[in-house]
Amino acid sequence: MSDKTILVWFRNDLRIHDNEILLEAVRKADKVLPVYCFDPYYFQLTETGAHKTGNFRARFLLEAVADLRKNLQGFGAELIIRIGTPAEVIPQLAEEYHVSEVYHHREVAYEETNISEQVEAALWKMRLNLKHFIGHTMYHKEDLPFPIKDIPDSFAVFKKKVERDSSVRPVVPTPDHISVPEIADAGELPTLQQLGLTDPIDDPRATDYFQGGETAALVQLHKSLSIVDGFTKQKGRNASDCSTKLSPWISIGCISPRQVYWEIQKYGNNGNLLKLELLWRDYFRFMFKKHGQKFISARNQAAELAADQDVLFDKWKLGETGVPLIDAAMHELNATGYISNQNRQVVADYLVNTLKGDWTKGAAYFEEKLIDYSPASNWGNWAFIAGVNDAKESKYTIATKLPKELEAKTDFVNTWQPSSIDEAGDLVEA
Question: At 129, which CATH number?
Answer without folding.
Answer: 3.40.50.620
